[in-house]
Design a protein that fits this description.
Blueprint lengths: L1 H11 L11 H16 L1 H26 L3 H26 L2 E5 L4 H34 L6 H10 L13 H9 L5 H31 L2 H7 L4 E5 L3 H12 L7 H16 L2 H6 L5 H16 L1 H9 L9 H14 L2 H14 L8 H10 L1 H13 L9 H12 L7 H25 L6
Antiparallel strand pairs: 1-2
Helix pairs in contact: 1-16, 2-3, 2-13, 3-4, 3-13, 4-5, 4-10, 4-11, 4-13, 5-6, 5-8, 5-19, 6-8, 7-16, 8-20, 10-11, 13-19, 15-16, 15-18, 15-20, 16-18, 17-18
Length: 439
């Protein structure tokens, strides 16, 4: 296992072990995101780019000049550019599609919308589905929208929903590139997806039904009117298709990002101004995500490298541990590299190498429950915090731009994520990874 892990670290640019103290910038980054908007929101809104850039620079300088491992940061920089190219292009293209909803959604209509959105997330990705559907979600609930509407949208559409195809969520796409068969996720994870989505929608229905009954009678009367849906900006579907096709391009380096940028530019100039105005479109949400995740991508490198080097000391000897530890790390680290880290550890237990596609297929054929545990942990637990997955912050920012009050970092975690997601994840771990497992 040690040999295989060393091969993996060399292949991904991990060199000398970082000093544990270098995980402090990442901790400070997380604390800044969690606390500063609450302590002094005005100051944070003005200076968060400086905080992200400053903390990221500390880690970069350490790797370049102390460890002499500039290649590691260049590798992370390329990953960040790919990430922001995908997020940014989908943001611009989805901003050119206007879904107009007249009328107010009943609770059962909201549940149907969330289910369809969860399915769609597997076709256009959780990022594409989140950006495309968050605005109509807000419009169809405009008379009684509350924080839990945004939270459950993040739970279902931005995270859990995208667990059926490699297109759905970045970790699964990385697995596909490493050799996991395309339809393996659908074949092996559909039951967990169905349980998680059904459970979350059931909880949402109970909360939304209570919210509906508390509404004034005249507002509930609006609910009985027929809803009218109108979609404009169909030409952007072509640009969306270009972005999704570009995802599968690996060579030459840079072509994928160039195609995504071209789609964004083409969409921007091809979309009538009135559609952008109808969507209240502006670049503030993507600007916030770009700066914050630049800091996160840079500062999380020591934490990921330390985890890779010491994965064998974590006692990862069961699917249950892989599920919970992958999930815990994915809650605060980017879930794509976390997925690769724990997948490499799972393969090392069986003397297999992540960088050999034949070995990956061998794991799929003989030890696929470990891969299921890593896949579900990475995707599902991305919903635990705003920083667990890229679309989470973007949905929060778009909602706030629309005047919707969203929970702060700790309220999201303590009031919603822990009491709702953790029991549901415990049920899934019992059904899939315990000695009493059903699947």
């Amino acid at each position: 296992m040690i040999l295989d892990m060393n091969c993996f670290m060399l292949a991904t640019g991990v060199g000398l072990e970082p000093h544990p103290a270098m995980m402090l910038p990442f901790a400070l980054m997380l604390l800044a995101i969690a606390l500063l908007p609450f302590i002094n929101r005005h100051w944070w809104e003005r200076h968060f780019p400086k905080v992200a850039a400053g903390l990221g620079a500390l880690t970069t300088v350490y790797y370049v000049f102390v460890l002499g491992n500039a290649g590691r940061m260049l590798h992370v920089g390329h990953e960040y550019l790919s990430f922001i190219a995908l997020i940014g292009s989908l943001f611009v293209v989805a901003g050119g599609i206007h879904i107009d909803v007249k009328g107010e959604a009943k609770p059962w209509v909201n549940c149907l919308f969330l289910f369809i959105s969860a399915v769609l997330a597997n076709v256009i990705g959780t990022t594409g589905a989140s950006i495309l559907l968050i605005r109509p979600w807000i419009r169809m609930n405009k008379y009684r929208i509350t924080a839990f509407h945004i939270v459950f949208f993040i739970f279902i559409v931005s995270n859990v929903g995208g667990c059926l195809t490699p297109i759905g969520d970045p970790p699964l796409f990385l697995g596909y590139l490493k050799g996991v068969p395309f339809w393996w996720v659908l074949e092996k994870c559909w039951a967990a997806w169905a349980i998680a989505v059904a459970g979350l929608i059931a909880i949402f229905y109970a909360l939304d039904r209570r919210n509906f009954l508390r509404a004034p009678p005249e507002m509930r009367e609006v609910e009985t009117r027929r809803e009218i849906w109108k979609i404009e900006g169909w030409r952007n579907v072509g640009f969306l298709g270009l972005i999704l096709a570009a995802v599968f391009i690996k060579q030459p380096v840079g072509l994928r990002e160039a195609l995504m940028a071209s789609a964004a530019v083409g969409s921007w100039f091809a979309t009538p101004k009135r559609i952008h105005e109808a969507n209240a479109f502006n670049f503030h949400p993507i600007r916030e995500v770009a700066w914050l995740f630049a800091g996160i991508f840079a500062t999380m490198v020591p934490a990921l490298d330390y985890l890779e080097l010491h994965a064998g000391q974590l006692g990862l000897n069961s699917e249950m541990k892989f599920f919970w530890l992958t999930g815990a790390a994915s809650s605060v680290l980017d879930n794509a590299p976390t997925y690769l880290t724990f997948l490499a550890a799972a393969m090392g237990l069986h003397n297999l190498s992540l960088n050999n596609p034949e070995h990956v297929r061998q794991l799929v054929a003989t030890h696929d429950h470990a891969l299921i545990a890593v896949s579900l942990g990475a995707v599902f637990f991305g919903a635990m915090t705003y920083i667990g997955n890229g679309p989470n912050f973007m949905v929060k920012s778009i909602a706030e731009q629309a005047g919707v009050k969203t929970p702060d970092f700790f309220t999201y975690l303590l009031k919603y994520a822990l009491p709702i997601l953790v029991p549901l994840m415990a049920l899934i771990s019992l059904l899939f990874f315990s000695r009493w497992r059903v699947f």
